[in-house]
Design a protein that fits this description.
Elements lengths: L13 H8 L3 H13 L5 E2 L5 E2 L2 H14 L6 H15 L2 H106 L2
Antiparallel strand pairs: 1-2
Helix pairs in contact: 1-2, 3-4
């Protein structure tokens, strides 16, 4: 397999290793713990979950083969395999790769933060413009309300004046009508008085 002499190898999940070796996922975890008990370190992701390389898969295959030999326990097989594979391991390279990935992710995170900050600044500016627009709208509405109130007061005054004028006009018409009636009476009286010689 490639990668035994320090080249960077692909990382596999426990489930992928289990499928590859045709064993249960729990068995992969059990074997990994036995290797770790014998001072072998597997690569772990940022959440602390183990990931496995092609070399680790070969270790597991060798462990399975050793386990099937009479008189060989899993622990003794793991101990001898750790001694062999520690020389071939690329854990350092994978750790370096993991560190580089972390740095790359940090750069991406920084870029995302900068982009988010730019967007937040743009939103803050837009919010400021909206507030200014709302302030102008509020001033306009206040002026409009004042004008409407003024118009309403003027309208009431005109209504009162018109009502007063109508009353005065009606009073005048009554006075004119009464004067006309009085004049008619005088004229009638004058006619009879003339007629009777009064």
């Amino acid at each position: 397999m490639e990668g035994l002499q320090g080249d960077i190898e692909r990382l596999y999940s426990p489930g992928e290793v289990a499928l590859h070796l045709d064993i249960e996922r729990q068995t992969v975890t059990k074997y990994a713990r036995i290797f770790e008990d014998n001072s072998y370190n597997f690569h772990k992701d940022e959440k602390g979950n183990r990931t496995y390389t092609d070399t680790n898969i070969m270790m597991f295959k060798d462990l399975i083969n050793q386990r099937n030999k009479p008189g060989v326990t899993l622990e003794s097989a793991a101990k001898s395999l750790v001694a062999i594979y520690k020389k071939k391991t690329i854990t350092t390279s994978v750790t370096t790769l993991h560190t580089e990935n972390k740095q790359y992710n940090q750069v991406i995170d920084n870029n995302l933060v900068e982009e988010l900050m730019r967007k937040l600044d743009a939103l803050a500016e837009e919010n400021k413009e909206i507030k200014e627009h709302l302030k102008k709208q509020e001033s306009f509405n206040k002026a409009l309300v004042e004008q409407l109130q003024q118009f309403d007061r003027g309208s009431k005054e005109r209504h009162n004046q018109l009502t007063q004028s109508l009353r005065e006009s009606m009073e005048n018409q009554k006075l004119i009508a009464a004067a006309a009636e009085e004049q008619k009476k005088e004229q009638k009286k004058g006619f009879f008085a003339r007629l009777l010689g009064l």
